[in-house]
Design brief:
Helices cover about 40% and strands about 20% of the residues. By secondary structure, it is an alpha/beta fold. It folds into 2 domains: about 150 residues, HAD superfamily/HAD-like (Rossmann fold), CATH 3.40.50.1000; about 80 residues. The two termini are about 15 Å apart. The structure holds magnesium ion.
Length: about 260
């Protein structure tokens, strides 16, 4: 039988992994992913973390399964060969160049943006290698207000967008997101969205939790209302259980529907 679910794309924090749980990734979820991998499916961890932070999280989680692909910083792609991950080219090089060009256009406005945030909110604003403007807001309500202001600013710079995850936000290029990275992996594997499963819990997951890039959509109970609504709207599965337990429920339901369990 042709496998109906060939790509499993999971966000990491709050979706696959919960820091305070033991184990942080439920064993049932690991078993379901492992079962699909043995039948030929590929598992993608699709996260806002950078590579070293993700590898540290994975190392501490002592998983029985290993991802086949990684999407880091919501835009860079790595594939696994044996125990090592390698950057996907030309994707990562193109992505880096596109961001470098884009951020040149933002540079002159940074002092004004930093001043606006610091004058109104208790928040950390800084630059890092991934974005000239990074935010850690004090509360989600503050992050909502700051995000609205940044989105207005983005209207003035072609291809600029804000990527938000909880109280964190940064600038990014509109062509690169968890959604477009997942689409590239799907293309690399010679597949189409019909066999793609995706699960996430926050704003930065919305670009992959859509009909355009995935067919089987799941949100755990801790997903923010906007994510739960998006998953409902697309006919996906919203679990009443938290974190990886909810994702395991959704993956099991998809596997049953696909006749795999
Ligand atoms: Mg998350």
């Amino acid at each position: 039988m042709d496998l109906p679910i060939k790509i499993i794309s999971t966000d990491f924090d709050g979706t696959l992994h919960a820091d305070h749980e033991n184990p942080p990734v439920p064993e049932r979820l690991q078993e379901l992913i492992g079962d699909l991998q043995r039948r030929g499916a590929k598992w993608v961890i699709n996260t806002g973390r950078d590579l070293s932070s993700l590898m540290e999280g994975l190392g501490r989680a002592h998983l029985s399964v290993q991802p086949d692909w990684l999407v880091t910083v919501e835009r860079e792609i790595y594939f696994r060969e044996g125990p090592r991950f390698f950057p996907l080219q030309p994707w990562n090089g193109d992505c880096e160049r596109a961001h470098r060009e884009l951020f040149k256009a933002v540079e002159k406005d940074l002092p004004r943006l930093f001043k606006w945030v610091n004058g109104k909110f208790r928040a950390s604003v800084y630059s890092d290698v991934y974005s000239p403007f990074c935010l850690i807001a004090g509360t989600n309500a503050d992050a909502d207000d700051i995000e609205a202001h940044l989105k207005d600013y983005c209207e003035s710079v072609p291809n600029l967008t804000v990527v938000r995850n909880d109280v964190y936000a940064r600038f990014s290029h509109t062509a690169y997101s968890k959604g477009t990275a997942l689409a590239e992996i799907t293309r690399q594997l010679g597949l189409t969205r019909e066999c793609v499963f995706a699960a996430g819990d926050h704003f930065n997951d919305l670009p992959m939790l859509c009909d355009e890039h995935a067919c089987w959509l799941v949100a755990p109970a801790n997903a923010i209302p906007q994510v739960q609504e998006a998953v409902w709207r697309e006919g996906g599965y919203v679990s009443d259980r938290l974190w990886g337990h909810g994702v395991a429920d959704g993956l099991e339901a998809a596997m049953k529907e696909a006749g795999l369990l």
